[in-house]
Specification:
15% strand, formyl-coa transferase, domain 3, seven-stranded mixed β-sheet, 420 residues, Rossmann fold, elongated
Length: 420
């Protein structure tokens, strides 16, 4: 277990990001930017905050595990966005920011006066990223978007499952949401680089539909070339064989024979060299045509030994292979720990909790810290103080319900003042 004792600045140190986002896609984008060193301030609605605060179980000491894992390394404030004073607080915050990321339904931000055209007038260098279900133009622009819906409409569910005629199956994780967050962070960084050259910000737009579709490069290539839609193949590959999961004595193993040289090693590991001279399996095209037969033969042999034994045998022969692991097995894997993908962060209520680390490493150090996800309104007073609000003004806003200030903040000294 990696327990970070010091905070690296990260390549985005000094960049301020305002996350006006909820649930998953936008918060994933904000998390990636935070892990690269940006100061990400999460603006939550008042009352209630981000809906994932109530996505339970599971909980750790009453805190939502779902919320904590994608909102760590951020500061959090709570504002009533339906109150004009609350909108003014957010506008003031954005006026000093570099980036805004949001994933509300199209038109929501504009109704509050927080759309890109209005914000650009006071902050021409602002990079504003919007994530929607289907994009901001086209016949589906006004539809609400969820990961499940995008997986179905992108073709992913038509490609996932055990075979034709079986019920559609979604990918086991919210791939549309997570990928949309990754695309958002990528687009934001590209726009920020452009701003460094020109001084001008811009509007960045991506969607769950597009985020799901970019996983269909191989199936789209087949459809473009043949005019036919590929069908589900379980864990198998549409253009290479054998490339799939096989049962073993005690579990499952993935074996990848991309390329003829990899295939030619497999029969030797299996102790079935006769497969090399069998015309049904001598080329990739032949193996694809006779895949059910090949799978039956290989499965019968692989069931004779354990997964670990086969992985070791294939690895020693240079054949790509690996076990099919459960989530808890993954989180215990030494390679995962060597890559700092399991870390510990400090949360004031949940304690010292485990989290997934940053998947991108930099020679100059990353931005991962020991900070857990913010409590509801945990940094409201701190951030307002940075904006120039004095203690009297902050108390007035809190008492009027414009903002929520977490009680732990009330003891923090506030020294900055501003005429309001």
């Amino acid at each position: 277990m990696i327990n970070h004792q010091r905070a690296f600045k990260g390549p985005l140190a000094g960049v301020r990001v305002i996350e006006l986002a909820h649930v998953m896609a936008g918060p994933v984008g904000g998390l990636l930017l935070a892990d690269m060193g940006a100061d990400v301030i999460k603006v939550e609605k008042r009352p209630g905050g981000d809906d994932t605060r109530r996505t339970t179980p599971p909980e750790i000491n009453g805190e939502s595990a779902s919320f904590m894992i994608i909102n760590r390394n951020k500061r959090g404030i709570a504002v009533d966005l339906k109150n004009p004073e609350g909108v003014q607080v957010v506008k003031r915050l954005i006026a000093q920011a570099d980036v805004v990321i949001e994933n509300y339904r199209p038109g929501t931000m504009e109704k509050m006066g927080l759309g890109y055209p209005a914000l650009r007038d006071t902050n021409p260098g602002l990079v504003y990223c919007k994530i929607t279900g289907f994009g901001t133009n086209g016949p589906y622009a006004q539809r609400a978007g969820y990961d499940l819906i995008s997986q179905g409409m992108s073709g992913l569910m038509g490609l996932t499952g055990e075979g034709p005629g079986r019920p559609p199956v979604k990918v086991g994780v919210p791939v549309g949401d997570v990928t949309a967050g990754i695309l958002a962070a990528t687009g934001i960084l590209a726009a920020y680089i452009e701003r460094l050259r020109t001084g001008e910000g811009q509007y960045v737009d991506t969607s769950l539909l597009e985020a799901s579709m970019i996983h269909t490069y191989w199936p789209a290539a087949i459809a473009f070339a043949t005019g036919q839609s590929p069908t589900p193949m379980g864990s198998a590959h549409p253009v290479a064989a054998p490339y799939q999961a096989f049962p073993t004595q005690d579990g499952w193993i993935n074996i990848g024979a991309i390329g003829q040289s990899n295939w030619e090693r497999i029969p030797q590991v299996l102790g079935a060299v006769w497969l090399l001279s069998d015309e049904r399996f001598m080329s990739n095209g032949a193996r694809m045509r006779h895949l059910p037969t090949l799978v039956k033969i290989m499965s019968s042999i692989l069931k004779e030994r354990s997964t670990d034994a086969w992985v070791a045998a294939f690895e020693s022969s240079g054949v790509p292979a690996g076990p099919v692991k459960t989530m808890t097995q993954v989180l215990d894997d030494p390679q995962v720990h060597a890559r700092n993908m399991v870390i510990r962060v400090d949360h004031p209520i949940a304690g010292n909790v485990e989290a997934l680390g940053c998947p991108i490493k930099f020679s100059g150090g990353d931005g991962v810290t020991t900070r857990g996800s913010p409590l509801y309104g945990e940094h409201t007073a701190e951030v307002l103080c940075e904006l120039g609000y004095d203690a009297v003004a902050i108390d007035r806003l809190a008492n009027a319900g414009v903002v929520h200030v977490h009680t732990a903040e009330l003891t923090a000294p506030i020294t900055q003042t501003v005429a309001l």
